Amino acid sequence: MGPAFGQPMDSYRAETYGQLSIIMFLFLLQQYFETSCPRVQIACDNQSAVDRVLILRDSKRPQFPNDTLQPSWDTLQAISRHLRLLPKVTLIWVKGHQDKNTPFAKLPVLAQLNVRADKLAGKFQHIWHHTYPQPLFLMIEGTGCNLMIDGETITSKHYKNLLDVRRTANIKQYLKKKFSWNHLSMISVDWRAYNLAVSNWSPPTAPESRSSTFLPKFLHRWLPVGKHVARYNPNMYSSFCPSCSSNIIEDQTHMLRCPCRTTWQRDMKQALISKCEKLATDPILVRILIEALFCWLRQSPFPATTFSANYQALIASQESIGWEHLFYGRWSTEWDSCQLGYLQDREVTLSHKNNGPAWASQLIRVIWDHCHAAWLERNLARHGADAEHRKEIALAHAKEKIRTMYALRPLCRLQRHRRWFHASPEAHFAIEPHLHQLQAWLRTYGEMITAISRRQQRMNQQGQMGIAEAFERLYNL
Fold first, then answer.
1. Phi-psi bin for 59: left (phi > 0), alpha (psi -120 to 50), beta?
2. Are 30 and 36 in contact (CB under 8 A)?
3. Total-model pTM
4. Is the pLDDT of residue 62 over 80?
C-alpha cells in the first residue's frame, strides 16, 4: 500500500515495484544484522514479471545495451541482482483474484494474502490515481541512467514517449493560442479523463448521421454546420440555421444553443442527475455542473458567489479553462479533488468508478451522447425525417438556390448567358416545377453562373472589361 514511481504506470510496473520493495527490505535487514537471510518465499500474481525476473537471475551472459529498453528495466535488473545475493529467497507465481470463484476462507494462504494485497493497493490507487509526488532524481541502483520527461521517469515505450513530447509541444501551443489559455489553464485540464472519455465513447446506432466521425469533428468544432458548409460555395449552400425563423448564422455554438432545439438539453439534465446519483457524486458538484452547463447555453453569468469557499478553487479553475469546455470534455482536475474529498468525508467506499478520471469520463460521455442527439435533431431539421419530408425540404432548398442564381443574373452580361434564365424565378418554377428538373438546372448552370459572377465582380473592382463584353457592346452599337 504505497506509491510506485515511473510512467507509463501499469500493473506490470506496480508488481515489479512491489517485488523490489520487499526484496530490498530483506537485503538491508541482512546487511544491518550481519547475518544471512532466513528462507523466505515471495509470491506475485503477475506471471510475466516473475518469469522475466527468473530469466535475468539465471542468465550467464552480460547485459546488452538493448536490454535496458525493456519495460521496467530498472526494477527488473535490481530484483534479479539482489536475488543472487539472497539465495534463500525464492520468487513464485500465484494465481490472482481467486476469490471470484472461491470463498476467501477456503483459499490457500498465499491466495488470501494476494487478495488482501490487491485491496490495499487498490485503496491507495483510488486515493492518489498515480499522482503521488515523485522524489527528485529518483534512480534505482544499477540502472545507469533514466529517461525523464516533465519530472517523470519513463520506464517503457521510450521511443513513443519521445515522439509524443515532440508532437504535443506544438499542439499545446496551438490550444493555448486558440482558447486563450495560460500555462496554468493548460496543466489544470484533466487530460486523463478526456482521453478515457474519447477512448470509451461509442455513438448510438445511427448510420445515416455518420456517427463514427461525429466526435472528432465535434471536439475540434468542425461539424458541417451552415457556417462551414457555406464557405465551399455561398451561392449554393445556406449558412443560416435550419430551425430558427430569423436569419442566424449557424455555427457549432449556435447548434447547441438554438432555442428551437431544447429537448436534448432537458434530457441531458435528467441523464446527468441520474448518472451522478449512481456514482455517489457530491450534490454540490452536481449543482455546479448543471448550473454551469445551462448558464452557458442561456448566455448568462455563472453565479459563483452562491457556492461555499470549498468549491471556489474548482470554479476559478474551470472558469480559466472556459465553461464551454465542459461540453468538449476539458474538465479541471479540481472536479476529481472535490469528489474524492466528499467521498472521504462520508467514508464512502472508493472504487474506480466513483472518483478520479474514470468518474469524470463517465459524465463527459453522457454530455457527448446528448450533444450527438442535438446534432441528429439538427440534421432532421435540415434534411427531413422521412422521404416525403426530405423531398419537400430539398425542393425548398433548390428553389432558394435558384433564386440566388437569378440574383446574380445581372453579372452574366453575354447574350448566351442570358439564355440560361427564364423571365423570373417564379416563371422558372412554373415551367420546371419538379425537383429533378430544378436540380438538373443547378447542376448544369449553377457552377458556371457562380464562376462568371465572381470573375465579373473581380473585373469590376479592377475597372476591367472582358473582350466578349467589349465586342457585344460594339455589336449592339
1. beta
2. yes
3. 0.70
4. yes
| Three-class secondary structure assignment of the chain | CCCCCCECCCHHHHHHHHHHHHHHHHHHHHHHHCCCCCCEEEEECCHHHHHHHHHHHHCCCCCCHHHHHCCCHHHHHHHHHHHHHCCCEEEEECCCCHHHCCCHHHCCHHHHHHHHHHHHHHHHHHHHCCCCCCCCCCCCCCCCCCEEECCEEECCCHHHHHHHHHHHHHHHHHHHHHHCCCHHHHHHECHHHHHHHHHHCCCCCCHHHCHHHHHHHHHCCCCCCHHHHCCCCCCCCCCECCCCCCCCECCHHHHHHCCCCCHHHHHHHHHHHHHHHHCCCCHHHHHHHHHHHHHHHCCCCCCHHHCCHHHHHHHHHHHHHCHHHHCCCCCECHHHHHHHHHHHHCCCCCCCCCCHHHHHHHHHHHHHHHHHHHHHHHHHHHHCCCHHHHHHHHHHHHHHHHHHHHHCHHHCCCHHHHCCCCCCHHHHHHHCCCHHHHHHHHHHHHHHHHHHHHHHHHHHHHCCCCHHHHHHHHHHC
Q: pLDDT by residue (tens digit) across 109-136?
A: 999 999 999 888 888 877 776 667 777 6
Non-local CB neighbours of 270 within 8 Å, separated by 6+ positions: none
Asked if residues 68 and 144 have their Cβ atoms less than 8 Å apart, the reply is: yes
Please tell me the predicted confidence (pLDDT) of residue 473. Answer: 61
In the numeric block, the cell 435550419 is attached to: 242
Instruction: Tell me if 153 sits within 8 A of 72, measured CB to CB.
Output: no
Q: Measured between alpha carbons, how far is 376 from 149 in angstroms, rounded to an integer?
A: 42
By residue count, the chain amounts to 477
Q: Among all chains, which residue has been given the C-alpha cell 468538449?
A: 328
What are the pLDDT digits (tens) for 258-298?
Answer: 988 888 999 999 999 999 999 999 999 999 999 999 999 99
Per DSSP, what are the bridge partners of residue 332?
189
Give, rounded to a whole angstrom, the gap between the first and last alpha carbons of the chain. 98
- Please, what are the domains in the chain? 11-154 (3.30.420), 186-383 (no CATH), 406-476 (no CATH)
From 311, 305, 262, 309, select the one nearest 289 (Cα to Cα): 311
**Burial of 55 (C-beta count, 10 Å sphere; 0-12/13-18/19+):** exposed
Q: What is the model's pLDDT at position 11? A: 84
Q: What is the dihedral of CA 289, 291, 296, 301, to 10 degrees?
A: -130
Rounded distance, CA 379 to CA 229, Å? 13
Rounded distance between C-alpha atoms, residue 97 and residue 392, angstroms: 61
**Pairing label, strands 147-149, 89-93:** unpaired
